[in-house]
What does this fold into?
Amino acid sequence: MTMQAEIITIGDELLLGQTIDTNSAWIGTELSNIGFDIHRKTSVHDRREDILDALESIKDDTDVVIITGGLGPTSDDVTKPVLCDFFNTRLIPNEEVLTMIRNMMKRRGFTLNENNRRQAEVPESCRILTNAMGTAPGMWFEKKGTIYISVPGVPAEMKYIMSDHVIPDLKKRLSSQTIIHKNVMTYGTYEAKLAEILTDFEKALPGNIKLAYLPSFGVIKLRLTAKGDDFGKLSNIINEQVVKLYQYIPEYIFSENEESLEMVIGRLLKEKKMTLCTAESCTGGKIAGMITSIAGSSDYFTGSVVAYANSIKTDLLGVQNELIKQYGAVSEQVVRMMSEGARKLFNTDYSVATSGIAGPGGGSEDKPVGRVWISVSSEECTVTEKQTFSNDRSINIERFSRAALNLLRKQIISK
It folds into this structure.
């Protein structure tokens, strides 16, 4: 039997877009990993009526409701009084919580005030979930066969309470179904085309396995989800399907389980004991930033030239002025010399270069906005690639960078 869960997030800042809701994504993943289906997520204002409406709309067959947010020390945090209304209980001081708050404030060199004391008031009917990361405790309620769990909205505090208390308890009490997710990362085609290629693959999937397409800036994550009672059997079935995916789309798969292009490149360069540099025009250092976001990148990444101006292309990278005049900065000829010049400058095994028109202006009929030339140079050869994307500057920079990383990846694995 499938276990059902709902998530309620509380906060005006979430609805206004001032704060990105990462909590529900994390909670959903963790609950799914122990066998829950997340069948609804609701975001509401910090208003009594809205929170009550969300709680009262919970379906009878829901096993668990996770509520996050609205537990702070200020007057706009109204979750606890609303929970008292919903569970027909009252707020009472809790000495254990007060002692934890007092000790935490003392460690931080702060004075305990009335707002902090109010945080030690909890609904009488709840079970307290201690919070070693902050001052607001988590709370566990049960009503008509449904478990309601309220946790702080601060991500670090929420994750601590969920990981330390909630997930272990739910696994003991409710987890009767196994759900396994397997992610296969792809790049090099668009979603509709990928779905067309995988039509027969999807039709042949076992009934307990589902395939989802999750695109992001050119990368399409294929998520295989298997449900059942036997973890070992499910693992074998889902691994068999991954093997089949490689047979259908070997040219598009670059990794599994959230491994990004920059992570793959770092791993490959480390394995081969090779080095890399970048020469970037339109991407403005984005590629170098992606590469150096990976721990240990100093083992293989030496440096970058952000050659935005043509004078930098000529003076530092050795691009000939005549080439820029004849073909323009956004051209195969120029980007080829950028990559070759960078590799010589930094004395690396590989270099990757970009020159393009990110937009929104600067395009022409021959070279529209979204056009990029990419080049990867190594001792054996220099390869180039032309791509054309959208009119949106931020999206173009992201996609230019990922296209460059993918071309680099293909060159590394071809050796």
